[in-house]
């Protein structure tokens, strides 16, 4: 989705919800079909582990 939509969606989360937006230029929505998807998956896992309670 476009970055402007991501920012709008993130702004609706309130309270203790942790939201961050990280853009990966040049990647389409079907991420696993593209080279480099592993690094993005690793970034998502690292983020989840850092914020796990």
How much of the sequence is in beta strands?
A: under 5%
Low-confidence stretches: none
- Determine the mean pLDDT: 90
The dominant shape is flat
What's the order of the H and E elements?
HH
Helix/strand structural class? mainly alpha
**Count of DSSP H/I helices:** 2
Question: How is the secondary structure organized here?
Answer:
Layout: H1 3-11, H2 37-51
Describe the structure.
With 53 residues, the chain is mostly helical. The protein is built from 2 helices and no strands. The radius of gyration is 13 Å and the shape is flat. Helix content is 45%, strand content 0%. It has one domain (3-51).
What's a quick, concise take on this entry?
With 53 residues, the chain is mainly alpha-helical. It is 45% helix and 0% strand.
Structure keywords:
flat, 53 residues, single chain, mainly alpha
């Amino acid at each position: 989705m476009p970055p402007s939509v991501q920012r709008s969606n993130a702004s609706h989360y309130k309270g203790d919800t942790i939201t961050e937006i990280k853009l990966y230029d040049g990647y389409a929505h079907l991420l696993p079909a593209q080279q480099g998807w592993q690094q993005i998956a690793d970034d998502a896992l690292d983020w989840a582990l850092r914020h796990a309670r």
